[in-house]
UniProtKB/TrEMBL annotation:
Keyword Transferase: yes
InterPro entries given in the database record: Glutathione-S-Trfase_C-like, Glutathione-S-Trfase_C_sf, Glutathione_S-Trfase, Glutathione_S-Trfase_N, GST_C, GST_C_Theta, GST_N_Theta, GST_Theta
Subcellular location field: Cytoplasm
Pfam family membership, one: GST_N
Assembly information from the UniProt record: Homodimer.
Domain GST N-terminal: 1-83
Keyword Secreted: no
Name this polypeptide is given: glutathione transferase
Length: 229
C-alpha cells in the first residue's frame, strides 16, 4: 500500500507529522502543498484531496484522512511505531491524548492567533493589526505558555509525559516554534520551555531541523528585511 503524505512545512501540524513519519521510518511519498500559492483552495482540490482544504492529510491507497492527531493514531495502528511515540497501553495513551486534546484550544490557539494576526493576516490583506490587538494576542499566548509550563513541564522529566518523547511533544514544539516568525521567541521568556525544546530538538535530529528549514529560511528573510528599514 502506498502512503502519500500531503504537507507544507510552514504549517505546524504538518511539521509534527513529518517528524513522526521520519523518526519512525515509515515509508511515504511526499506531496508538498504550497499553501502560499493557494492550490488547496479550489473545488477540485476539495473533491480529490481534502474535504477541509487544509494540510496535513494522507492518502493510504484509496483511504483519505485529515487532522494530524487522527493521522498519527491511524499510523500508530498501521505501522510499527515505537511504543513511546503513541503508546498502546491504555493509561500511557490517555496521558498523550490528554495533551493532544488540550493543545488545540490552548497552545495552538494562542500561538497561531499571535502569528496569524501579526504576520499572515497583514501579508494577505495589507492591513496591519492595531498595537492593542497585538498586545492582547501576546497576553493570551503568554497565558497559555505559562499554563503549558506549569501543567505539562512541572516535573524534572525531559518530556511532556515523562522520560520518553511522544507525539504530544512534537505537536507542542511545532506550535511553539511558530510565533518566532512574528517576532516572538518563547525561549527568551520561558526557561522550562527553552530546556524542553532543546530536548525535543536533540531527540529528533536530523528531522527536527529538516522540518524547520523553511521556517528558519523565512525567519532570516524577515530579519534581513527588518535590518534594512
Ligand atoms: N486541526 C488540524 C489543523 C489543520 C490546519 O489548520 N492547517 C492549516 C495550516 S497550519 C491550513 O492548512 N490552512 C490553510 C487554510 O486555512 O487555508 C490538524 O491538526 O491537522
Amino acid at each position: 500500500m502506498v502512503l502519500k503524505y500531503y504537507y507544507d512545512l510552514l504549517s505546524q501540524p504538518s511539521r509534527a507529522v513529518y517528524i513522526f513519519l521520519k523518526m519512525n521510518k515509515i515509508p511515504f511519498e511526499p506531496a508538498v502543498v504550497n499553501l502560499g500559492g493557494g492550490e488547496h483552495l479550489t473545488e477540485e482540490f476539495r473533491e480529490k484531496h481534502s474535504k477541509f482544504q487544509k494540510v496535513p492529510f494522507i492518502h493510504h491507497d484509496d483511504f483519505r484522512l485529515t487532522e494530524s492527531v487522527a493521522i498519527v493514531r491511524y499510523l500508530a495502528r498501521e505501522y510499527h511505531v515505537k511504543e513511546h511515540w503513541y503508546p498502546q497501553e491504555i493509561r500511557a495513551q490517555a496521558r498523550v491524548d490528554e495533551y493532544l486534546e488540550w493543545n488545540h484550544l490552548n497552545v495552538r490557539a494562542g500561538c497561531a492567533r499571535y502569528f496569524f494576526d501579526k504576520l499572515m493576516g497583514p501579508m494577505m490583506t495589507g492591513k496591519q493589526p492595531s498595537d492593542e490587538q497585538v498586545k492582547k494576542n501576546q497576553k493570551a499566548m503568554e497565558k497559555t505558555l505559562t499554563d503549558f509550563e506549569r501543567i505539562f513541564l512541572s516535573s524534572e522529566a525531559p518530556f511532556i509525559t515523562g522520560t520518553e518523547i511522544s507525539f504530544a511533544d512534537l505537536q507542542a514544539a511545532c506550535e511553539i516554534e511558530q510565533p518566532r516568525l512574528a517576532g516572538y521567541e518563547p525561549r527568551d521568556h520561558f526557561s522550562k520551555i527553552k530546556t524542553w525544546l532543546e530536548n525535543v530538538k536533540s531527540e529528533c535530529q536530523p528531522y527536527y531541523d529538516e522540518a524547520h528549514k523553511p521556517l528558519e529560511a523565512w525567519l532570516k528573510k524577515i530579519q534581513k528585511k527588518a535590518a534594512k528599514l
